[in-house]
Structures
1.
Amino acid sequence: MDRRLSKRETMNDQPRIGIVGGGAAGFFGAIACAEANPRAQVTLFEAAREPLGKVRVSGGGRCNVTHHCFDPAQLVGYYPRGGKALRGALTRFQPRDTVKWFEDRGVALKVEADGRMFPTTDDSETIVACLMRSAKQAGVTVRSHTPVREIHRNTATVQAEPFEIVTRDDRLSVDRLLLATGSSRKGYLWAQKLGQTIIDPVPSLFTFQINDRALHALAGISVPEAIVRIPGTKPNQNLSQTGPLLIAHWGLSGPAVLKTSAWGARYLHDRGYRTPIRVNWLPNSTDDDLRSHLQHLRQDSARKAIASFSPFGFSRRLWGYLLDRADLDPQLQWAQLPKPKVNRLVELLTQCDFEVTGKGQFKDEFVTCGGVRLKDVNFTTMESRVCPGLFLAGEILDVDGVTGGFNFQNAWTTGAIAGQAMANLLAL
Ligand SMILES: Cc1cc2nc3c(=O)[nH]c(=O)nc-3n(C[C@H](O)[C@H](O)[C@H](O)COP(=O)(O)OP(=O)(O)OC[C@H]3O[C@@H](n4cnc5c(N)ncnc54)[C@H](O)[C@@H]3O)c2cc1C
């Protein structure tokens, strides 16, 4: 990378930093830079009237800030894309640093049983207010409702302010530019114009649409642990995911499905979101356990109707659905259950097949798989390897995590590193 100082820098003038995108990554970058180098004039441009829109709506309005996992080696396992590149970055700024960052600014986080961390207020406004306050205190100029229209680069090598940011009303030349535009198409186009390769963006974290009216009628029923698997895929594709499973009025949802959609984002996109899936409703029991349990019921509950209770702890309605799929009369007595049907029930309990016919709706979280190719970025600074002076952070990168606070952690980590690196370079 060309580290020759610009005229402005050698003159010890006030260096100018431009940040495009007022989301989690842009704010973290801006605050880190302004705090590390008080001489820097940091200007953040945000298209929307109110910055931090996604933070506000995140986590169902509670903002799942990060995940209670403080081991970078383990943490990277939650990122279907970008985990390897993030490994080093997470040793510099990881969830423990996120917790401390907010704590130092008066915001306490709490951890829930599944590891997700939220503000103790359970209100995303607490996070928004903290970021806005911190930016103000650090001297960041936040220009909301100011969409950036164009970005130009002056390609001369020794040049003060090599980037020009153009808005509707004015232009600002800057020494360093941070692109933190999330999944905005314009952001990808600028990154590309400045020399980055863009990996085709496709959705991640979605539910599965399944055309099965009888299943839809069970909407709201969940099982605490199930395995969702895409048959015929290899173990290293990670298309077999365990977790809570929720039946929705359009198909299947819940963490097991969302994780499968994240690991399979590109696989599913390439197949038009049509695929068979196989559900194991009882992953902690073997087929033999289940078979023997059903055999016992034939004797112990001989005179009872097979639909009169659910023998496996889940909802009776779900049990009724499985009986229906096995073509069994719900009034049949346990003693009359034919042996082949016992095998069929075991199969439905552990290998229940569905056809996914599309991407379902999911309003709680949604991210983009794809973006700026990671080998074009130096993850110790988040500076582009192909365009010196350009930094990238957050969702614009080809990094995405499963649900649980990992996507914000990517934004905090890469934003903080970019901000500090921009400040350090300018302080040389
Ligand atoms: C509904 C929802 C809930 C979520 N909940 C969670 C959660 O609880 N936990 C979690 O970890 N992740 C969650 N996510 C994912 C998380 O929100 C994103 O990963 C994260 O916001 C990415 O941050 P970012 O700063 O990179 O991008 P963004 O937050 O998308 O910010 C980019 C900003 O750039 C601005 N911008 C774009 N173009 C321009 C332009 N031309 N000029 C100026 N500004 C521009 C946009 O307006 C936007 O404000 C959720 C996502 C959604 C959609």
2.
Amino acid sequence: MDDIKKLPTLISERIILRPINIIDCADMYDYAKRENVGPMAGWEPHQSIEETKNIIKTMQDEMLTETNIGVFSIVYKKSMKMIGTVGLHRLNKQRKTAELGYILNPDYWGKGLMVEAVTKIIPWFFDELGLYRLECGHFDINQQSKRVIEKCGFTLEGTFRKKIVLKDESRCDLHHYSILKEEYENNQLPWQKR
Ligand SMILES: CC(C)(COP(=O)(O)OP(=O)(O)OC[C@H]1O[C@@H](n2cnc3c(N)ncnc32)[C@H](O)[C@@H]1OP(=O)(O)O)[C@@H](O)C(=O)NCCC(=O)NCCS
């Protein structure tokens, strides 16, 4: 983990994953401004492209720090448009754990692209970074994210009851999952069995 100076570029069938860059700001703003995107992951829609630019700068500053791995942009090969992000956060080097988060432009939902992205990151996480436990969570109202988590092979560990306060002041449960290194190494994840 300490040897890594920069996030790599990872390539799969339909997408390229590479470190987020300021050149992504227009493509990111295109989806980050929409009402049905950020609030499902716990953040407010972006109000301006300047805000998006500042958020990307912060993501770059927080790349490969003591407590953070960083954010990959998802680039759709066909158009070379940046269509979302996959991030690895809350790194704990001593416990060898980190948390996964992801966002996709709604114009690209329903094509299995996030499962493609996450299943490209998982081998890098265990094999190259040598980490032990990948964590992930979703709001109870976010059934799309639940499906991504299930298809990637995460195991439900528990539910934080009514932990999340939504914009309309209502509360919802937060479900928490993980994948362990041995599950990946023993090919126990659904996408490894194909
Ligand atoms: C969660 C998210 C990344 C899913 O990505 P995706 O690549 O579209 O995922 P999939 O194509 O595997 O689809 C997931 C499920 O959503 C359903 N779905 C697809 N498009 C949909 C749409 N427009 N509306 C509602 N459901 C939809 C699919 O039927 C699929 O379920 P299935 O596998 O049982 O058929 C995407 O919806 C997103 O970015 N949401 C906003 C941000 C967010 O929620 N981030 C995660 C926070 S935990």
